[in-house]
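Section 3.1 - Work completed
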Amino acid sequence: MPLKPIPGRESLVIKKEFKERYSELLQEKYPDFMEHSTSFIRRSIRVNTLKITVKELRRRLSQDWQLEQIPWCREGFWITGSRLDIGNLPEHILGYIYVQESASMIPPLALSPRPHQTVLDMCAAPGSKTTQMAAMMANKGAIIANDINADRIKALGLNLNRAGVANTVITHMEGRNMRIQTFDKILLDAPCSATGTIRRNLHVLQQYNYALVKRLAAMQKGLIKKAYSLLNQGGTLVYSTCSMEPEENEGAVDHLLKNEEGAKLQKISLAVKSSETIAQFDGDEYDKNIGKCLRIWPQDNDTEGFFIAKIMKS
């Protein structure tokens, strides 16, 4: 599908610090990155199989909407139609669908929680990935959905209720202070600088601040170490961000690998296009196994940008 430019992109003011850093990071791929980042993103939904089958949902929407299968998610579809307000559809209000960006569906799929397992969603709000995992677990097992932000927890509770989730308990605390050590699988979708989400928030181009990136990277290193410590032996941690910053992605994973001998990166096998991870940047050299992670630029699949790492505790 041809890209549809966001109106006024020719006159966008891009912060010099951002342009210089991402030109260095992407080299000849920078123009393609910016073209995608300043084009409208495709709208996408995920069918909530706790309430409806994929077949029935497609039947309900087929008259007014065109659904295109997302290759990496059986329940995910890009959706086009005459309306823009997908959130006002009866199917959304009833919890039959969740409006979720297509790349955002990847981390739960990489984690692959099972019905008998105990799962921690460490930074869960507003709940897109929590509800996805609950559906994958058929409302069995147990999920702890944690977040530090009280306002976002309200949205998390509403979304869990609307989706019919019954196997999840909400907690409200700083992730680095958690003490429970009984998790088979943990999703850490870490707070980040969100430089992969420019096409949904053009302000990122004007507000970019490398000093903030460094502060976030320090927090992310603490979060990933804490998450790893909460895993059962043989358990799996998926670390993800919607940032394109090496310090927040390869740097955080590299920090864990250097400090935890039992941490082993696993290859993620999904039908999604990804780019090479960053081996070294700005004086930092990262563990060679980081090549097993997924670094997804917006231009790779015409989505948001995302980074996903899958780590086993051996």
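Second construct:
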Amino acid sequence: MSAPKWIELDGVVNMRDVGGLPTTDGSRVASGRLLRSDNLQDLSDGDVAHLVDGLGVTDIVDLRSNVEVHLEGAGPLRARDLVPHHHHSLLTDDEHDDPAAAALVLPWAKESGRPEPPKRDDDHWASHYLGYLADRPDSVSAALEVVATSSGATVVHCAAGKDRTGTVVAMALSVAGVSDEDVVKDYVATGERVERIVARLMTRPAYEETLRDQPMSQHVPRPETMQRLLTVLAERHGGAAGWLREQGWSEDQVETLCRRLREPR
């Protein structure tokens, strides 16, 4: 796998294009189709112009909870109504509207009083990721449908761009034919910037209290976590494509997502 295609902007620290990843049959993921990112609240005017006019972004998939969106505000892209926003929360406990209660719906809030997710795996984070698929299959499926049908580049983001974004992007890459090994490598690339990600989120109202006393080690992505998610998908559902079929996707829809993400032959 080549080096991550970081997109350097003023207002984010974890945005990259997954284009260029190889597929198992000798093709590649097309550039300018799927971008993954941390929170978009701090985008500058120049960032906005670069995303829309330079990179051809036509859709935003926001995986944050309702409380995060409420506390953080619309953000410049949404406030200006420049591109369609598709909000698909991956969390279920999502009715709070104050910073103290936000800890209850943040995926990394283990040390802040948030109940552990139902145990679906021995790995803490793998249990969260499998929980997204079990508890919010509607949101995961809808997010991937946006990627499949977008006319330009889709930005998929949450807060850090690691856990919720990592789950949805891994599903998309798997459908496109990227090997598990390279899906895992893309996931752990966020570790290169994890200190900058946490420092940035510490300045945001929805996250500062929750993150204040947490060790950095809690946020570093571990390859075995993503590998476990992919293994469970393969063993229980026949892979990401099989999981989508179980959600009601037709073979044509699965193929549309695959073609959308791959370079034309």
